[in-house]
Amino acid sequence: MAFSEFRPLDDKSLIEYIKAVPALSSILGNNFSDLSVKEVGDGNLNFVFILLNSSGSLVIKQALPYVRCIGESWPMTKERAYFESMALKEESRLCPEHVPQVYHFDRTMSLIAMRYIESPHIILRKGSIAGIEYPLLAEHMADFMAKTLFFTSLLFRTTADHKRDVGEYCGNVELCRLTEQVVFSDPYKVSEYNRWTSPHLDSDVEAVREDNLLKLEVAELKSKFCERAQALYMEIYTLVL
């Protein structure tokens, strides 16, 4: 099966893709007889597959050309996978103890292959909801953020290097625009994508839309988000490490 142009993957076609990429099939010991493939993406945008067998494991993340939770009516560039892979590789270089290793990136397929963080590790959000305490969380997060922010800032880098990378990431327009719309614009006005429990919250929604002081504060936050580039994704996705 050729993968010379983009196609969304499923369990079967993903296995064919892995077989065609020696760097990935070798991680699984070139053993597909006992391979388990599970799609676990619970986010808004991407497919996420976990591949496990007796020889190894992988996580495959594929960006779709639309917002997954909405459908094809809301197009979204696949190029976001390129920027995410670049960010992960740089963050892994700066703080390898807290960032999963990227094994492979395919720009045509908008696909990232990375290390699978094995059980008993779980998504931090789920652990927090379950009331699990993580005594090292603050220390590990501080370490990751300090290294990522300092070593990509003008406190450490030359102006030329900094401007070069800012220019490269300026191409990540659509994903930033999604955050601008969903976080900093739509909640404060009438929008087709807004949802709330009606009529119970109608008065609260109206209060938000009419609160000019709140909208001024949000506008200032939006300005910071749009104009003060930093080397952190808006949401810091973490696993318990």
Automatic annotation (TrEMBL):
The lineage of its organism: Eukaryota, Viridiplantae, Streptophyta, Embryophyta, Tracheophyta. It comes from Lotus japonicus. GO terms for molecular function: ATP binding; kinase activity. SUPFAM superfamilies: Protein kinase-like (PK-like). It comes from the Eukaryota. Belongs to the methylthioribose kinase family. Keywords: ATP-binding, Kinase, Nucleotide-binding, Transferase. The keyword Iron-sulfur does not apply. InterPro entries: Kinase-like_dom_sf. This is S-methyl-5-thioribose kinase.
